[in-house]
Amino acid sequence: MRFVGIDPATRTGFVVLDECMNVLVEEELRGKGTGAMSIPQLVSLEDMLFKRLQKEDEVVIESASVSTQMAITTGMIHGGLRSMIHRARLDFDDVNPMQTKKYVGVTGWVKEGGKNRRLKDAEKKAAVKQAVLEHFGYTHKSDNVIDAYIIARIAVNVHRSRNLLPEIDRMPYQLEVVEAVLNKK
Predict the structure, then answer these.
(1) Which of 90, 99, 138, 147 lies most in the core, judged by the most C-beta atoms within 10 Å?
(2) Residue 76, SS3 per DSSP
(3) Alpha carbon distances (Å) from 70 to 83, 106, 119
(4) Cα separation of 117 and 114, whole Å?
């Protein structure tokens, strides 16, 4: 059995773990072509994903961020990749971007001088990268692959929880994320 984590974007993070949490695949997928996401690039990206999926895969895919600046492109990518998962005759679970960060203990806030300050994009990515390294000893040059790695770990624990097996990642915030995914929150 394989556990697949997908972080959809113009550069889509794709990670596959085995049952022992070994990384089988870690890559960033990008549709062939140049410029803004065109229909040929989107179809190319969808084909790449479809070719990588296998019959028994357990898939978790990150949902779109509510505050995305590129809503149409994001919608096309997310919808197209979900369509490919469906064509591969696989079910999938959704995890939202906040839950992905929460799974490694990143809240998006930092305390400075007794006050909370929201982390900006690059700061948040750096915090997630550091948290993944600290939690799991994993790193990658691509933020998208790092997110996909977290999502693949969520897939493992969602599967284990559904099958009444003990979760591998057992921090309270990780168990909350698994519960939220199972309850479609």
Answers:
(1) 147
(2) helix
(3) 20, 24, 20
(4) 10
Backbone angles phi and psi of 146, in degrees to 5: -60, -45
CB-CB neighbours of 59 under 10 Å: 23
The CB-side HSE value for 13 (13 A sphere, CA atoms) comes to 22
Interhelix angle 121-136/143-162, nearest 10 degrees: 50
Q: What does R_g of the chain's alpha carbons equal in angstroms?
A: 16
Domain ranges of the chain: 3-182
CATH fit for domain 3-182, picks 3.40.350.10, 3.30.420.10, 3.40.50.2000, 3.40.50.720: 3.30.420.10
Sort strands 12-17 and 109-112 into parallel, antiparallel or unpaired.
unpaired
In whole angstroms, what is the distance from residue 181 CA to residue 185 CA?
Answer: 6
Condensed to tens digits (0 to 9), the pLDDT of residues 102-156 reads 999 999 888 888 899 888 889 999 999 999 999 999 999 999 999 999 999 999 9
Q: How far apart are CA 8 and CA 63, in angstroms?
A: 8
Phi-psi region of 113 (alpha: psi -120 to 50; beta: other; left: phi over 0): left
